[in-house]
Design brief:
- The complex is a heterodimer of chains A (334) and B (184).
- Chain A is an alpha/beta fold.
- Chain A is 49% helix and 14% strand.
- With 184 residues, chain B is an alpha+beta fold.
- Chain B is 17% helix and 51% strand.
- Chain B is built from two helices and eleven strands; from the N terminus they run αββββαβββββββ.
- The radius of gyration of chain B is 22 Å and the shape is elongated.
- The chains are: A alpha/beta (334), B alpha+beta (184).
């Protein structure tokens, strides 16, 4: 409302140009919807990020009666209410972790070769990690598990292959890191596609968003509306773009992985559309200011449209790079 | 009496000739080279992840062959590091870093064109069994090459199917095995 009052006042005093102070005030008013959009996006997206970290889990250790860890023990959980089950195996330290469990009561059964199976009931709370340790008693002679890894004398063993216990040992911390990485990249992927819509729309509405004609004719109502719409689209695009980038930049990295394949092109193109997303709004603001001052858009500001086009093309290409159907790659032979 | 002694002699001779047959020779096989590849299918992507890092050994004794193959999950390469990391995450490859395959088949099939093996596959913290999986056997000089496909599925190992653009991959993830062995 304040913006429209100001604009009407400016239209009635059409014989004078906007002063710098008035332009800044107008910019502040115009920026308010952007801030609202950005606030909405950040309020919506960051809770999503926080949600990803909130998983119920069950963790613990399995040891024998002497306190030694039992590796390879099968840990199976069954939700008492829903009947849904899940299982895992202990690592070389006898530790196990079951993630992504819904809150509720579970029957937890541990079985291991040479030990009597044991079942306990546990309540898993929402967004928490429940600990449950087991101490297994030795099985009576002759009791064997049907699915225990075979180790008869005439069968080769992992030791025969030169595979150490350390190589078989799991790394729950790395798994948690990978899980977190995937969750963040899934959000990055979805937001990235959503961002494309306002980005393309902003590019299309760009040529229509002229505060004044290039010859300095008076401000007309329809073109101002177009400018508002274009600015709102640009603001939304910027907010979504940088939120999208956040989920990629801050996704956990996995050390020692050499990047190969389409992801390299995807990341390389970010060095084009990233600076483009910073430069385009700046050039747009400069062009806007020049037009408001009754000047023909000149200097670097005249590259606003070009910068926007290059940015959108690079952004689109980065999406295509990681989503183009591999089996339709005509330049590769399988 | 002579007849009884003759009968005992014949019986003893039969037992003596039968004994070597029951304690058959133990033969061991070592893996020369191998290619294991899983195939993943999505409406937009057809992906093959390949590993040449398997280690293996086989022992044949008493008419039965037991072969063991083990391959680190992280060695499967689909040509895209991002996708490979996603695969490791989906199959819990950090928690269970090794795929272990135990194959058992009659020793008599070791000289035939087709081997039908019973498989026990430990992967992603789960164990799945496959019966009578056919493998083609070819021989060149001292090297025996065994090729076949394990009809694995995501559900066999309780793997949540990865999705792209909200569309999950197919449940079937057949694993092609091509392994060359030599007798030690």
């Amino acid at each position: 409302m304040r913006y429209h009052q100001m604009r009407n006042a400016l239209q009635h005093s059409s014989n004078r140009f906007l002063s710098a102070k008035e332009s800044f005030a107008m910019y502040q008013v115009r920026a308010t919807p952007f801030l609202r959009h950005a606030l909405f996006v950040f309020l919506f997206v960051f809770p999503l990020n926080a949600y990803c970290q909130q998983r119920s889990a069950l963790t613990g250790t399995v040891k024998d009666s002497s306190g030694k860890p039992v590796a390879g023990a099968q840990v199976a959980v069954e939700n008492v209410a829903s009947g849904q089950s899940s299982n895992t195996a202990t690592d070389s330290t006898g530790s196990y972790t079951l993630q992504q469990l819904a809150a509720g009561n579970y029957n937890v059964t541990v079985t291991a070769n040479g030990f009597t199976s044991q079942t306990e009931q546990v309540t898993v709370t929402a967004n928490g990690t429940q600990a449950l340790d087991f101490t297994l008693a030795a099985a009576p002679p002759g009791q064997e598990l049907p699915n225990a890894p075979s180790a008869a004398p005439q069968e080769p063993s992992l030791q025969d292959l030169g595979i150490s216990q350390q190589q078989m040992q799991g790394n729950p911390q790395l798994q948690a890191r990978l899980n977190r990485r995937t969750e963040m990249l899934k959000i990055h992927q979805k937001l990235g596609l959503i961002t494309l819509a306002p980005m393309v729309a902003a590019l299309i509405t760009g040529p229509m968003a002229k505060a004044k004609g290039r010859n300095g004719q008076p401000v007309e109502e329809p073109t101002q509306a177009n400018l508002d719409f274009h600015a709102a689209l640009g603001s939304t695009t910027a907010a979504l773009y940088f939120t999208t980038a956040y989920f990629a930049v801050f996704a956990p990295k996995v050390p020692g992985v050499q990047k190969r394949g389409a992801i390299r092109m995807h990341e390389a193109l970010a060095f084009v559309h990233g600076p483009g997303m910073i430069l385009t709004p700046i050039l747009g603001a400069m062009a806007f200011k020049q037009e408001q001052d009754g000047e023909k858009v000149h200097g670097v500001a005249s590259f606003h449209g070009t910068a926007a086009t290059v940015t959108v093309l690079a952004y689109g290409a980065s999406i295509v790079a990681v989503s183009w159907p591999i089996h339709l790659k005509f330049w590769e032979t399988k | 009496m002579k007849k009884i002694l003759f009968f005992v002699f014949i019986l003893g001779a039969l037992i003596c000739t039968a004994l070597p047959a029951s304690t058959q020779e133990l033969s061991q096989w070592a893996l020369d080279q191998s290619t294991l590849s899983y195939h993943m299918s999505h409406p937009m992507h057809e992906v093959d992840g390949v590993s040449h890092a398997a280690k293996g050994k086989g022992i044949c004794q008493s008419g039965t062959c037991n072969f063991l193959l083990a391959v680190p999950v992280k060695t499967f390469d689909s040509g895209d590091s991002n996708r490979d990391l996603h695969m490791i995450e989906a199959v819990r490859g950090a928690e269970f870093p090794m795929v272990v395959v135990r194959a058992q088949f009659p020793e008599s099939e070791l000289n035939q064109q087709w081997i039908h093996a019973n498989l026990e596959v430990q992967f992603a913290g789960q164990t799945a069994h496959y019966s009578n999986v056919p493998f083609q056997r070819t021989q060149q000089a001292n090297e025996v090459r065994i090729q076949g496909t394990v009809p694995a599925t995501c559900s066999d190992f309780k793997i949540e199917r990865p999705s792209f653009l909200a569309v999950p991959i197919k449940n079937e993830i057949p694993v092609r095995v091509d392994a060359a062995w030599h007798k030690q």
